[in-house]
Amino acid sequence: MAGNGKLKVRLARPWDLKELMPLYKKTFISDTPYLYDDSIPKVGLVYLLIAGIVKRLGIDPYRMYVGLLDENLVGSCSFSRLGKFWRTNFIIVNPHYRGKGYGKRIYRSAIDDVFSSSKRIMGVISYLREDNVPSKRLHNELGFVKFTKLSFMLGDMQSIGFESDGGAKQLTPCKESLKDLSREYTGTFSHNADPIEKEARLSMLHIPIDEKIYYRSIISFSFRTGSDWKGGYILKLPKGNEVGECLILLPSGNGETCGNEIAHSILTHLIAECTKRNITNVVIKFDANFTDVIKLAEEIGFKEIYTMEGFILKKVGSPIALSR
Q1: How many domains are there within the chain?
Q2: pLDDT for res 50
Q3: What is the pLDDT of residues 60-73, one digit of tens each?
Q4: Are 97 and 164 in a shared domain?
Q5: Range of the domain at 247
Q6: Whole-model pTM?
Q7: CATH at 247
């Protein structure tokens, strides 16, 4: 696999990490839902060391690419497999080669390769900070379109909590498997929803290899009124004193409200779980359209840290796939 001219793009090898890691630490600004920037290349190193064995087993959960110009490292990008999609983890370019279009060529070539990795692949998704104009421009130029928007809020469990129940009725949580939670969430989608974008939203429920290594365990809960699923959340429990992460899932198609009852129930139970498990800080993420959740979270002490936009490049009909 190669770019134009002397630029070569190939899958990374273990020895590439020696040069890549300093560049990553120096230049990388996280545009993924992580607060642990150095975990991705560390996982990359582990995976690259066992890539041959893993591929012989028919497993392909992670890919890292490097771009080389006369054998000098120009840039790199990596992807994690999330069901029927590849998610972009990072794109970095050596400062000496910026502004010359190399980053776009490396990324485009890598996407072309992951598109060919499996017939089941529907596309590539990438989560970008709302204020990251250069990255958004790059993705637009390659044919990506926005399909979702997520709010990220940080809570310190030692200073957060409800002063009163606000009169809200508490729904009883039920511990549930990710598979069952996914099925419940899927059932709330409109019959007219774009099937590929629907799968892209569901990909958030897949746990990539880097997170399985980073977190000690992952638990999930659902909330119901009778047989009606009202919402749920997935809590990723960190190792040591690191930051936990929680994905809040609410019925699709409800517009800008889910109701105080479910918002209050989820946040109350989440705080209790974090306190019980000695998690001092947790980041919650959820569909930014649910402004009532944002309002309630702010009232009890969560602080918004950033908003991210999800972009998707569908394999079928994409400029990159058509040019192959």
Answers
A1: 2
A2: 62
A3: 888 889 999 988 99
A4: no
A5: 150-311
A6: 0.86
A7: 3.40.630.30
